[in-house]
Amino acid sequence: MIPDDGVLQATIDDVIPLGFLSGTASDIALAAMETAWDLAERALGTDLLATGVACEVYDRPTGHIDYNERFGFLKLRKTHLVTIQSVTVRHDQFECDCADEEVSGCAHIYNERLSHIRLEDCFGPGDCSCAAAGRPSQVEVCYTAGLWGTLAEIPRSVLIALGLISQWYSEVMETSGEQASTAFVDSWRSMDYSESYGFLEKNVIGTSPQLGVAWNLLRRYKIKRGVAMRSYLAAQPGRS
Fold it and tell me: What pLDDT digit, counting tens, does each position of 30-86 carry?
């Protein structure tokens, strides 16, 4: 979740001593850092700072494993789960007039690092004559996830990565996109001098050597997840 301009400016102030964005116009620097922050979070699959709240809607987990069982497993989109804020039962809007209802205490954190949760007894009111009263077809989960709690906790290597990305994009903006088309020499000969130009293999952030260095600094925090498996194992302690 991209922070406000105050946090972005504080990050710029942190990367200037490291050699980035010095002398860059303030509007361009803010836009470049916002881009860097967004690309880093999308690449890592979670927020850098665990300060915001993400809300996601999921179809109720069903299948032969869950048949007539009063729970379901979910894999949230962002990794490094910190806390579950709320779970809201979303009623079938086509068959009943019941309002959506927040249900407290029904979400258990199963794996914080992978952001797997288990829902237990997340049901709507018993007097509501629609499908959600017995077993909701959709639930909305609001939660907080992220790698660090404050800007001061972010490692210097990650600040360098943000500086590399923001510096590259600031040059793109300052040159009206010219920097984005810059290639690099991928082969050359010393006799009868010749050279050829190409582009780096694309990574999750971009294609330039500078962005490749940034990704090498960030990738250690990336978690690779498989399909969330559902079973009858007991949940880990912790309720919303």
Answer: 999 999 999 999 999 999 999 999 999 887 655 444 555 555 778 899 999 999 999
Residue listed under structure tokens 């300060």: 51
Helices (H) and strands (E) in the chain, counts: 5, 9
Asked if 193 contacts 64 with a C-beta cutoff of 8 angstroms, the reply is: no
SS3 label, residue 10: helix
Q: How far apart are CA 46 and CA 147, in angstroms?
A: 7
Determine the Cα–Cα distance for residues 139 and 128; give it in Å rounded to an integer: 16
- Give pLDDT tens digits for 132-175: 445 566 788 999 999 999 999 999 999 999 999 999 999 888 88
DSSP string, 138-174: EEEEEEEE-SBSSGGGS-HHHHHHHHHHHHHHHHHHH
119 strand-pairing partners: 72, 107
Query: 86 forms bridges with which residues in the sheet?
Result: 142
- Cα(48)–Cα(50) distance, integer angstroms: 7
**Bridge partner residues of 120 (DSSP):** 71
Q: Which of these, 6, 20, 44, 2, lies nearest to 162 by C-alpha position?
A: 20
A 10 A CB-CB count for 142 gives 17
Which range in 4-18, 67-81, 119-133, 221-235 is most confidently predicted, on average pLDDT?
Answer: 4-18
DSSP states along 43-78: HHTS-SBTTS-EEEEEEPP-STTTTT-SEEEEE-SS
